[in-house]
Amino acid sequence: MGEKMIAIVLSDKAYENDVYPLVKAFYPEETLKVTFMDTVMDHNDTRNENNQDEPHTIMIGFYPNQVSIKFQTEQGIELQQTIDINTVNCSRTQYKNSFKRLLYRMLSERLQKELPWGILTGIRPTKLVYEMLEDNRELHDICTHMKKEYLCSEDKIDMSVRIARREMELLKEIDDRNGYSLYVGIPFCPSTCLYCSFTSYSIEKFSNYVEAYLDALEKEIIFGAGCFPDKKLTTVYLGGGTPTTLSAEQLDRLLKLIRKHFDFTYVKEFCVEAGRPDSITRNKLVVLKENGVDRISINPQSMQQRTLDLIGRKHSVEQIKEAFQLARETGHDNINMDIIIGLPGENLEDVQDTLRQLEELNPESLTVHTLALKRAARLNLEKDSYSDLKANDVTKMLEATIHFAKKHDYLPYYLYRQKNMADNLENIGYAKHGKEGLYNILIMEEQQTILALGAGKKCNGLH
Protein backbone atom coordinates (compact mmCIF):
# COMPACT_ATOMS: atom_id res chain seq x y z
CA MET A 1 0.00 0.00 0.00
CA GLY A 2 1.38 3.44 -0.92
CA GLU A 3 1.54 6.42 1.38
CA LYS A 4 -1.59 8.54 1.43
CA MET A 5 -1.07 11.85 -0.31
CA ILE A 6 -3.51 14.66 -0.96
CA ALA A 7 -2.69 17.62 -3.18
CA ILE A 8 -4.13 21.03 -2.43
CA VAL A 9 -4.01 23.26 -5.50
CA LEU A 10 -4.74 26.96 -4.94
CA SER A 11 -5.11 29.86 -7.32
CA ASP A 12 -3.93 32.33 -4.67
CA LYS A 13 -1.00 31.73 -2.27
CA ALA A 14 -2.49 34.19 0.21
CA TYR A 15 -5.00 31.59 1.45
CA GLU A 16 -2.61 28.68 2.07
CA ASN A 17 -2.64 29.17 5.83
CA ASP A 18 -6.44 29.15 5.85
CA VAL A 19 -6.92 26.04 3.72
CA TYR A 20 -4.09 23.76 4.83
CA PRO A 21 -4.94 23.54 8.58
CA LEU A 22 -8.60 22.88 7.85
CA VAL A 23 -7.90 20.07 5.40
CA LYS A 24 -5.25 18.66 7.77
CA ALA A 25 -7.83 18.54 10.56
CA PHE A 26 -9.93 16.20 8.41
CA TYR A 27 -6.92 14.19 7.22
CA PRO A 28 -4.53 14.13 10.22
CA GLU A 29 -2.65 11.02 9.06
CA GLU A 30 -2.21 11.93 5.40
CA THR A 31 0.58 13.93 3.82
CA LEU A 32 -0.66 17.14 2.23
CA LYS A 33 1.14 18.78 -0.66
CA VAL A 34 0.26 22.39 -1.46
CA THR A 35 0.87 23.66 -4.97
CA PHE A 36 -0.44 26.63 -6.93
CA MET A 37 -2.18 26.86 -10.24
CA ASP A 38 0.81 28.50 -11.88
CA THR A 39 2.95 25.52 -10.82
CA VAL A 40 3.26 22.38 -12.94
CA MET A 41 2.09 19.39 -10.87
CA ASP A 42 2.32 15.69 -11.58
CA HIS A 43 -0.97 14.24 -10.34
CA ASN A 44 0.64 10.79 -10.17
CA ASP A 45 2.60 12.08 -7.16
CA THR A 46 -0.63 12.36 -5.20
CA ARG A 47 -2.15 8.95 -5.74
CA ASN A 48 -4.01 7.57 -2.74
CA GLU A 49 -3.85 3.80 -3.00
CA ASN A 50 -5.67 3.15 0.27
CA ASN A 51 -9.03 4.56 -0.81
CA GLN A 52 -9.70 5.45 -4.40
CA ASP A 53 -12.95 7.22 -3.50
CA GLU A 54 -11.15 9.85 -1.44
CA PRO A 55 -10.04 13.03 -3.18
CA HIS A 56 -6.37 13.02 -4.04
CA THR A 57 -6.62 16.58 -5.37
CA ILE A 58 -8.51 19.52 -3.87
CA MET A 59 -8.52 22.48 -6.22
CA ILE A 60 -9.66 25.90 -5.01
CA GLY A 61 -10.04 28.91 -7.26
CA PHE A 62 -10.33 32.34 -5.62
CA TYR A 63 -12.08 35.08 -7.58
CA PRO A 64 -13.31 38.59 -6.66
CA ASN A 65 -16.94 37.53 -6.11
CA GLN A 66 -16.71 33.77 -6.10
CA VAL A 67 -14.78 30.76 -4.79
CA SER A 68 -14.85 27.40 -6.57
CA ILE A 69 -13.84 24.13 -4.86
CA LYS A 70 -13.33 20.87 -6.76
CA PHE A 71 -12.49 17.38 -5.47
CA GLN A 72 -10.87 14.90 -7.83
CA THR A 73 -10.50 11.22 -6.91
CA GLU A 74 -8.26 8.50 -8.28
CA GLN A 75 -11.14 7.29 -10.40
CA GLY A 76 -11.52 10.71 -11.93
CA ILE A 77 -14.80 11.43 -10.13
CA GLU A 78 -15.21 15.15 -9.56
CA LEU A 79 -17.29 17.02 -7.03
CA GLN A 80 -17.47 20.74 -7.56
CA GLN A 81 -19.25 23.47 -5.62
CA THR A 82 -19.15 27.22 -5.95
CA ILE A 83 -20.03 29.99 -3.53
CA ASP A 84 -20.85 33.56 -4.52
CA ILE A 85 -19.38 36.20 -2.20
CA ASN A 86 -20.27 39.88 -2.41
CA THR A 87 -16.87 41.38 -1.76
CA VAL A 88 -18.25 44.94 -1.81
CA ASN A 89 -19.99 44.42 1.53
CA CYS A 90 -17.62 41.74 2.80
CA SER A 91 -14.44 42.02 4.88
CA ARG A 92 -11.43 39.82 4.20
CA THR A 93 -12.28 37.78 7.32
CA GLN A 94 -15.86 37.23 6.13
CA TYR A 95 -14.55 36.24 2.68
CA LYS A 96 -12.22 33.66 4.23
CA ASN A 97 -14.87 32.29 6.57
CA SER A 98 -17.34 31.92 3.69
CA PHE A 99 -15.11 29.67 1.60
CA LYS A 100 -13.85 27.81 4.68
CA ARG A 101 -17.46 26.93 5.58
CA LEU A 102 -18.00 25.59 2.08
CA LEU A 103 -14.79 23.55 2.21
CA TYR A 104 -15.72 22.27 5.68
CA ARG A 105 -19.16 21.12 4.57
CA MET A 106 -17.79 19.36 1.50
CA LEU A 107 -15.17 17.50 3.53
CA SER A 108 -17.60 16.77 6.35
CA GLU A 109 -20.18 15.30 3.97
CA ARG A 110 -17.60 13.20 2.13
CA LEU A 111 -15.94 11.82 5.27
CA GLN A 112 -19.03 11.76 7.50
CA LYS A 113 -16.99 13.60 10.08
CA GLU A 114 -17.45 16.81 12.06
CA LEU A 115 -14.85 18.91 13.84
CA PRO A 116 -15.75 20.16 17.34
CA TRP A 117 -14.26 23.59 16.60
CA GLY A 118 -15.70 23.84 13.09
CA ILE A 119 -13.57 26.03 10.83
CA LEU A 120 -11.59 27.55 13.70
CA THR A 121 -7.93 26.62 13.30
CA GLY A 122 -6.29 29.36 15.38
CA ILE A 123 -4.87 28.76 18.85
CA ARG A 124 -7.10 31.22 20.75
CA PRO A 125 -10.80 30.43 20.18
CA THR A 126 -11.82 32.00 23.49
CA LYS A 127 -10.34 35.32 22.38
CA LEU A 128 -13.23 35.74 19.94
CA VAL A 129 -15.75 35.23 22.73
CA TYR A 130 -13.77 37.43 25.12
CA GLU A 131 -13.85 40.33 22.66
CA MET A 132 -17.61 39.95 22.10
CA LEU A 133 -18.20 39.96 25.87
CA GLU A 134 -16.09 43.11 26.13
CA ASP A 135 -18.37 44.66 23.51
CA ASN A 136 -21.36 43.78 25.75
CA ARG A 137 -22.96 41.50 23.18
CA GLU A 138 -25.82 39.31 24.38
CA LEU A 139 -25.09 35.68 25.16
CA HIS A 140 -27.56 34.43 22.57
CA ASP A 141 -25.93 36.65 19.95
CA ILE A 142 -22.46 35.31 20.82
CA CYS A 143 -23.56 31.68 20.65
CA THR A 144 -25.38 32.21 17.36
CA HIS A 145 -22.35 33.96 15.86
CA MET A 146 -19.94 31.18 16.90
CA LYS A 147 -22.25 28.52 15.48
CA LYS A 148 -23.14 30.20 12.18
CA GLU A 149 -19.85 31.92 11.43
CA TYR A 150 -17.44 29.22 12.61
CA LEU A 151 -19.62 26.06 12.79
CA CYS A 152 -18.48 25.36 16.37
CA SER A 153 -20.27 22.68 18.36
CA GLU A 154 -22.54 23.74 21.21
CA ASP A 155 -20.24 22.09 23.77
CA LYS A 156 -17.22 24.09 22.61
CA ILE A 157 -19.22 27.32 22.47
CA ASP A 158 -20.47 26.76 26.01
CA MET A 159 -16.95 26.05 27.27
CA SER A 160 -15.55 29.12 25.47
CA VAL A 161 -18.16 31.37 27.06
CA ARG A 162 -17.56 29.99 30.57
CA ILE A 163 -13.80 30.37 30.24
CA ALA A 164 -13.97 33.86 28.73
CA ARG A 165 -16.26 35.00 31.56
CA ARG A 166 -13.88 33.53 34.13
CA GLU A 167 -10.93 35.26 32.49
CA MET A 168 -12.70 38.62 32.56
CA GLU A 169 -13.50 38.18 36.23
CA LEU A 170 -9.89 37.30 37.10
CA LEU A 171 -8.42 40.17 35.10
CA LYS A 172 -10.66 42.86 36.62
CA GLU A 173 -8.05 43.76 39.21
CA ILE A 174 -5.13 43.78 36.77
CA ASP A 175 -4.11 47.03 35.14
CA ASP A 176 -3.10 45.47 31.85
CA ARG A 177 -2.55 48.79 30.04
CA ASN A 178 -0.03 50.03 32.59
CA GLY A 179 1.45 46.65 33.45
CA TYR A 180 3.63 43.97 31.90
CA SER A 181 4.74 40.41 32.64
CA LEU A 182 8.15 38.77 32.64
CA TYR A 183 9.06 35.39 31.14
CA VAL A 184 12.51 33.87 31.70
CA GLY A 185 13.50 30.78 29.72
CA ILE A 186 15.85 28.07 31.00
CA PRO A 187 16.70 25.77 28.06
CA PHE A 188 17.88 22.72 30.01
CA CYS A 189 16.07 19.48 30.90
CA PRO A 190 17.04 16.13 32.44
CA SER A 191 16.23 14.61 29.02
CA THR A 192 14.26 15.52 25.91
CA CYS A 193 10.75 14.08 25.81
CA LEU A 194 9.55 12.27 22.70
CA TYR A 195 6.83 14.86 21.97
CA CYS A 196 8.82 18.00 22.81
CA SER A 197 9.83 20.67 20.29
CA PHE A 198 10.77 23.44 22.75
CA THR A 199 14.26 24.84 23.02
CA SER A 200 15.79 22.48 25.57
CA TYR A 201 19.05 20.60 25.98
CA SER A 202 20.01 17.62 28.11
CA ILE A 203 21.64 18.82 31.31
CA GLU A 204 23.77 15.68 31.27
CA LYS A 205 25.35 16.67 27.96
CA PHE A 206 25.34 20.45 28.32
CA SER A 207 25.92 21.06 32.05
CA ASN A 208 29.19 22.86 31.30
CA TYR A 209 27.19 25.58 29.51
CA VAL A 210 24.91 26.45 32.43
CA GLU A 211 27.15 28.95 34.21
CA ALA A 212 27.94 30.74 30.94
CA TYR A 213 24.24 30.82 30.17
CA LEU A 214 23.45 32.34 33.56
CA ASP A 215 26.21 34.93 33.06
CA ALA A 216 24.63 35.95 29.74
CA LEU A 217 21.15 35.88 31.24
CA GLU A 218 22.30 38.20 34.06
CA LYS A 219 23.26 40.83 31.50
CA GLU A 220 19.92 40.44 29.78
CA ILE A 221 18.07 40.72 33.11
CA ILE A 222 19.86 43.95 33.94
CA PHE A 223 19.05 45.35 30.50
CA GLY A 224 15.45 44.10 30.54
CA ALA A 225 14.75 45.67 33.90
CA GLY A 226 14.99 49.09 32.28
CA CYS A 227 12.73 48.37 29.30
CA PHE A 228 9.45 49.48 30.89
CA PRO A 229 10.24 52.17 33.46
CA ASP A 230 6.64 53.46 33.43
CA LYS A 231 4.91 50.06 33.71
CA LYS A 232 4.19 47.87 36.74
CA LEU A 233 5.34 44.24 36.75
CA THR A 234 2.26 41.99 37.11
CA THR A 235 3.41 38.36 36.83
CA VAL A 236 6.74 36.53 36.57
CA TYR A 237 7.07 33.12 34.93
CA LEU A 238 10.18 30.89 34.70
CA GLY A 239 9.75 28.22 32.04
CA GLY A 240 11.83 26.27 29.59
CA GLY A 241 13.04 23.62 29.47
CA THR A 242 12.93 22.92 33.16
CA PRO A 243 14.18 25.70 35.47
CA THR A 244 14.67 23.26 38.36
CA THR A 245 17.30 21.45 36.28
CA LEU A 246 19.59 24.16 37.67
CA SER A 247 21.32 23.35 40.95
CA ALA A 248 19.89 24.87 44.12
CA GLU A 249 22.76 27.39 44.15
CA GLN A 250 22.22 28.34 40.49
CA LEU A 251 18.49 28.63 41.01
CA ASP A 252 19.01 30.83 44.07
CA ARG A 253 21.38 33.05 42.09
CA LEU A 254 18.86 33.47 39.26
CA LEU A 255 15.86 34.19 41.49
CA LYS A 256 17.80 36.74 43.54
CA LEU A 257 18.96 38.46 40.33
CA ILE A 258 15.38 38.79 39.14
CA ARG A 259 14.17 40.14 42.49
CA LYS A 260 17.11 42.54 42.71
CA HIS A 261 16.60 44.17 39.32
CA PHE A 262 12.81 44.07 38.95
CA ASP A 263 10.29 45.83 41.19
CA PHE A 264 8.01 43.20 42.76
CA THR A 265 5.74 45.71 44.51
CA TYR A 266 2.74 44.96 42.29
CA VAL A 267 3.53 41.35 41.33
CA LYS A 268 0.45 39.14 41.71
CA GLU A 269 2.05 35.83 40.73
CA PHE A 270 5.58 34.39 40.71
CA CYS A 271 5.53 31.00 38.99
CA VAL A 272 8.34 28.52 38.32
CA GLU A 273 8.06 25.29 36.36
CA ALA A 274 9.44 22.45 38.45
CA GLY A 275 8.09 20.28 35.69
CA ARG A 276 10.30 17.22 35.86
CA PRO A 277 10.08 15.32 39.16
CA ASP A 278 13.63 14.02 38.60
CA SER A 279 14.87 17.62 38.77
CA ILE A 280 13.28 18.37 42.16
CA THR A 281 15.08 18.28 45.51
CA ARG A 282 14.14 19.56 48.95
CA ASN A 283 16.84 22.25 48.75
CA LYS A 284 15.53 23.57 45.45
CA LEU A 285 11.97 23.71 46.77
CA VAL A 286 13.21 25.63 49.81
CA VAL A 287 15.08 28.05 47.53
CA LEU A 288 11.89 28.67 45.53
CA LYS A 289 9.88 29.34 48.68
CA GLU A 290 12.51 31.62 50.24
CA ASN A 291 12.62 33.72 47.06
CA GLY A 292 8.88 34.31 47.05
CA VAL A 293 7.77 31.83 44.38
CA ASP A 294 4.07 31.27 45.05
CA ARG A 295 3.11 28.88 42.25
CA ILE A 296 4.95 25.86 40.84
CA SER A 297 4.17 23.21 38.24
CA ILE A 298 5.06 19.55 38.75
CA ASN A 299 4.19 17.78 35.51
CA PRO A 300 3.77 14.00 35.41
CA GLN A 301 2.14 13.98 31.92
CA SER A 302 1.05 10.43 32.74
CA MET A 303 1.00 8.20 35.80
CA GLN A 304 1.59 5.09 33.68
CA GLN A 305 5.17 3.86 34.00
CA ARG A 306 5.34 2.24 30.58
CA THR A 307 4.25 5.55 29.03
CA LEU A 308 6.86 7.52 30.95
CA ASP A 309 9.54 5.09 29.78
CA LEU A 310 8.35 5.30 26.17
CA ILE A 311 8.24 9.11 25.96
CA GLY A 312 11.65 9.60 27.52
CA ARG A 313 10.69 10.78 31.01
CA LYS A 314 13.59 9.53 33.10
CA HIS A 315 11.63 9.21 36.31
CA SER A 316 9.18 6.84 37.97
CA VAL A 317 5.57 7.33 39.01
CA GLU A 318 6.75 7.05 42.61
CA GLN A 319 9.17 9.96 42.08
CA ILE A 320 6.23 12.12 40.98
CA LYS A 321 4.45 11.41 44.25
CA GLU A 322 7.61 11.95 46.28
CA ALA A 323 8.31 15.29 44.59
CA PHE A 324 4.76 16.43 45.23
CA GLN A 325 5.00 15.46 48.90
CA LEU A 326 8.33 17.31 49.21
CA ALA A 327 6.69 20.40 47.78
CA ARG A 328 3.93 20.20 50.37
CA GLU A 329 6.44 19.68 53.18
CA THR A 330 8.38 22.80 52.11
CA GLY A 331 5.28 25.00 52.17
CA HIS A 332 4.12 25.07 48.54
CA ASP A 333 0.36 25.45 48.57
CA ASN A 334 -0.30 26.31 44.90
CA ILE A 335 0.83 23.39 42.74
CA ASN A 336 -0.21 22.73 39.15
CA MET A 337 0.09 19.34 37.51
CA ASP A 338 0.06 18.66 33.76
CA ILE A 339 -1.19 15.60 31.97
CA ILE A 340 -1.23 14.83 28.24
CA ILE A 341 -4.02 12.84 26.63
CA GLY A 342 -3.36 11.01 23.39
CA LEU A 343 0.12 9.78 24.31
CA PRO A 344 1.41 6.77 22.34
CA GLY A 345 -0.10 3.48 23.42
CA GLU A 346 -2.47 4.91 26.02
CA ASN A 347 -6.18 4.18 26.21
CA LEU A 348 -9.13 5.56 28.16
CA GLU A 349 -8.47 3.28 31.14
CA ASP A 350 -4.89 4.58 31.40
CA VAL A 351 -6.10 8.18 31.57
CA GLN A 352 -8.75 7.28 34.13
CA ASP A 353 -6.09 5.61 36.28
CA THR A 354 -3.82 8.66 35.96
CA LEU A 355 -6.70 10.85 37.16
CA ARG A 356 -7.35 8.52 40.11
CA GLN A 357 -3.73 8.85 41.21
CA LEU A 358 -3.80 12.65 40.83
CA GLU A 359 -6.97 12.69 42.92
CA GLU A 360 -4.94 11.36 45.85
CA LEU A 361 -2.39 14.18 45.47
CA ASN A 362 -5.06 16.89 45.12
CA PRO A 363 -3.10 19.64 43.31
CA GLU A 364 -4.55 23.16 43.22
CA SER A 365 -4.69 23.18 39.43
CA LEU A 366 -4.67 20.71 36.57
CA THR A 367 -3.66 21.42 32.98
CA VAL A 368 -4.93 18.94 30.40
CA HIS A 369 -3.00 18.93 27.13
CA THR A 370 -4.10 17.09 24.02
CA LEU A 371 -1.07 15.66 22.24
CA ALA A 372 0.01 17.82 19.31
CA LEU A 373 2.51 16.42 16.83
CA LYS A 374 5.00 19.27 16.45
CA ARG A 375 7.13 19.20 13.31
CA ALA A 376 10.45 19.12 15.21
CA ALA A 377 9.42 16.59 17.87
CA ARG A 378 11.02 13.13 17.73
CA LEU A 379 7.54 11.60 17.88
CA ASN A 380 6.85 13.23 14.52
CA LEU A 381 10.30 12.80 12.97
CA GLU A 382 10.28 9.10 13.89
CA LYS A 383 6.53 8.55 13.56
CA ASP A 384 6.90 5.28 11.64
CA SER A 385 8.50 3.73 14.72
CA TYR A 386 5.38 4.53 16.79
CA SER A 387 2.64 3.90 14.22
CA ASP A 388 1.39 0.85 16.14
CA LEU A 389 1.11 2.84 19.38
CA LYS A 390 -1.47 5.41 18.37
CA ALA A 391 -3.77 6.38 21.25
CA ASN A 392 -7.44 5.45 20.97
CA ASP A 393 -10.57 7.27 22.18
CA VAL A 394 -8.86 10.64 22.65
CA THR A 395 -12.23 12.43 22.66
CA LYS A 396 -13.43 10.13 25.45
CA MET A 397 -10.16 10.81 27.30
CA LEU A 398 -10.90 14.53 27.19
CA GLU A 399 -14.46 13.90 28.38
CA ALA A 400 -13.05 11.93 31.34
CA THR A 401 -10.88 14.89 32.34
CA ILE A 402 -13.86 17.25 32.08
CA HIS A 403 -15.93 15.03 34.39
CA PHE A 404 -12.98 14.73 36.79
CA ALA A 405 -12.62 18.51 36.93
CA LYS A 406 -16.33 19.04 37.64
CA LYS A 407 -16.36 16.36 40.34
CA HIS A 408 -13.43 17.93 42.20
CA ASP A 409 -14.39 21.59 41.81
CA TYR A 410 -11.73 22.52 39.29
CA LEU A 411 -12.93 25.48 37.23
CA PRO A 412 -11.80 25.86 33.60
CA TYR A 413 -10.05 29.21 33.31
CA TYR A 414 -8.04 29.21 30.09
CA LEU A 415 -7.98 27.31 26.83
CA TYR A 416 -5.74 27.16 23.81
CA ARG A 417 -5.21 25.02 20.77
CA GLN A 418 -2.26 23.91 18.65
CA LYS A 419 -1.80 22.63 15.14
CA ASN A 420 -2.10 18.87 14.56
CA MET A 421 -3.81 18.15 17.87
CA ALA A 422 -5.27 14.70 18.35
CA ASP A 423 -8.96 14.63 17.33
CA ASN A 424 -8.82 18.39 16.66
CA LEU A 425 -9.32 19.09 20.37
CA GLU A 426 -7.77 21.59 22.81
CA ASN A 427 -5.73 22.23 25.96
CA ILE A 428 -7.61 23.35 29.06
CA GLY A 429 -6.35 24.81 32.31
CA TYR A 430 -8.40 24.01 35.42
CA ALA A 431 -7.92 25.41 38.92
CA LYS A 432 -9.52 25.52 42.32
CA HIS A 433 -11.10 28.89 43.01
CA GLY A 434 -8.40 31.52 43.64
CA LYS A 435 -5.54 29.33 42.38
CA GLU A 436 -5.66 30.19 38.68
CA GLY A 437 -2.47 30.94 36.76
CA LEU A 438 -2.78 34.62 35.81
CA TYR A 439 0.18 34.54 33.41
CA ASN A 440 -1.59 31.90 31.34
CA ILE A 441 -4.62 34.12 30.85
CA LEU A 442 -2.56 37.19 30.04
CA ILE A 443 -0.62 35.44 27.30
CA MET A 444 -3.61 33.59 25.86
CA GLU A 445 -5.87 36.62 25.57
CA GLU A 446 -2.98 38.92 24.60
CA GLN A 447 -4.03 41.35 27.28
CA GLN A 448 -0.57 42.54 28.24
CA THR A 449 2.97 43.11 27.03
CA ILE A 450 5.27 40.24 27.97
CA LEU A 451 9.02 40.76 28.24
CA ALA A 452 10.79 37.49 27.40
CA LEU A 453 14.40 36.87 28.43
CA GLY A 454 16.70 33.95 27.75
CA ALA A 455 16.95 31.34 25.00
CA GLY A 456 13.88 30.20 23.10
CA LYS A 457 11.77 33.27 23.87
CA LYS A 458 8.39 31.65 23.23
CA CYS A 459 6.88 32.88 26.50
CA ASN A 460 5.60 29.31 26.66
CA GLY A 461 4.34 29.08 30.21
CA LEU A 462 0.84 27.70 29.80
CA HIS A 463 0.98 25.36 32.79
Description:
- The chain is an alpha/beta fold and 463 residues long.
- The chain is 37% helix and 21% strand.
- The radius of gyration is 24 Å and the shape is globular.
- Helix 1 packs parallel to helix 2 (92-111), helix 8 packs parallel to helix 9 (282-290) and helix 12 (348-361) packs parallel to helix 14 (394-407).
- Mean pLDDT is 87; it is low at 40-52, 374-389 and 459-463.
- It contains 15 helices and 16 strands.
How are the strands of the biggest sheet laid out side by side?
Answer: 14-15-13-12-11-10-9-6-16
What Rg is obtained from the alpha carbons, in whole angstroms? 24 Å
- Report the structural category: alpha/beta
What shape does the CA trace take? globular
- What is the overall pLDDT average? 87
Give the number of helices: 15
Number of domains: 3
What percent of the residues sit in helical stretches (DSSP H or I)?
Answer: 25-40%
β-strand percent reads 15-25%
Classify the fold: give the CATH topology of the largest domain: pyruvate-formate lyase- activating enzyme
